[in-house]
Amino acid sequence: MTSPDIVIIGTGMGGASVAAGLAHSGASILLLERGERLADTPECIDARAIFAAGHFRPKEMWREAGGGSFNPGNYYYVGGNTKFYGAVLIRFRRQDFCEIEHHGGLSPAWPFPYEELEPWYSKAEALFNVRGTLGEDPTEPPHSAPYPFPPVPDEPPIARLRERLRKIGLNPASLPLGVDHALWLQRAATPWDAFPNAGRGKMDAESCALAAALKDENVRLETGARVERLEASRDGRSIARIHYRVGAEQRTVSPKLVILSAGAVNSAALLLRSGEDGGLANSSGQVGRNFMNHNSAAMLAIDPRRRNDSIYQKTLGFNDFYLGDGEGGKPLGNVQLLGKISGDILRPNVPLLPAAAANFIAAHSVDWYLMTEDLPDPESRVMVDGSEIVLQWRRTNLESLQRLTRRMRTICRATGYPIVLSRPFDKRTPSHQCGTVRIGRDPASAPLDPYCRSYDHRNLFVVDASFLPSSAAVNPALTIAAQALRVADHIRRKELS
């Protein structure tokens, strides 16, 4: 088989978006995806299958450094984790590209400002058909183009909640969402948050970016293709071969360009397993380090006197405490609605709770997601032990989450919810893993340049959440897509022209 010009490893938000940006360039492109397409089965709309039985969770186990094994909850399908994401496609704030002091330390500046990425944010919003509106959120950065579609409408209980939040002086804003809610609800009356997209309504990496890329006859997708290692050229300055397996068959391909987009953990692990003396692309010693995963918590605001009959719920959030605590103090984070929980979603998280009680709580709650920034720490890292992934997550900035949780309890009670329950997410929930192969201007401290190109290997790019130098405190999917489109444009101009 003739080797393609470009191989992209992974079809999540980074890989699919960079493929869309490179399509119709004249280059032959092969996407290697370890998973298969997600089939439309009854389990896709069955909350017990998803949340209790773990029907879609991977069978693999990772190991905690110095501890036991755990099931990580990263998904391996065409489209990656976006098949299950909440479809919040929000921009990082302009200030997120600058150095910011948090309770737990400093969030570093990016190697370029917001304005550099802004045009690509607009292109990513168009690619993913984002629903949203401007003018509601005071922290919203400048946009050069409006959202392609109007926002997903609030259901009546959420519309009333929006008004109560406004009355106490907050700025609730419509979440920018990649979802056609009417089309989604044709399948079943479920939320989309954490429910798999089998092709009906959610704008994920497969349904939008990859679908656009595959319209080019020069772009080909190979599923069930698990990449085992990369091989450097003799001089070590480029990647010469990709070794992967399909079933029991070992295969090798030698493209001109390699784009690694396997996710923050798996991209780092693949580089560490490849080569010798610390792995590939790692003269800085930073591959696998600076692992970040948002500090986040679920909060249920309960009013036993009032039912919440919303189906999807997830239409608004607020950033009133994003850039500061509202009292002159340091940033706390983002607050947004979760997809509407049900008793079947709640019970696996509280096993001793009787079904009747779980159903009552779910029917009378509004469900929130609190998210604060995790800061880069070189000792928070991905490591490998043979074929095993070892994760050492040293959480930072937890004081911000604690302060935001306390503030939200007050807000919930002020808006008419006397009972407030909360629980932080743990390592089993991948809350936006990032940072393990970061971009920077100094090759001594960053494996990648600002265009995600390896400083060590001239034909290697890493385009997924691992490139993020900071986690910010909002969902990173749109930022990954925007940077992927920016990188694709750079490759077209500099490598393919």
TrEMBL record:
Residues 202-294 form the Glucose-methanol-choline oxidoreductase N-terminal domain. Pfam families: GMC_oxred_C (PF05199), GMC_oxred_N (PF00732). Its cofactor is FAD. Residues 141-153 have a biased composition (Pro residues). Residues 133-153 are annotated as: Disordered. Keywords: FAD, Flavoprotein, Oxidoreductase. Residues 429-484 form the Glucose-methanol-choline oxidoreductase C-terminal domain. Belongs to the GMC oxidoreductase family. This is GMC oxidoreductase.
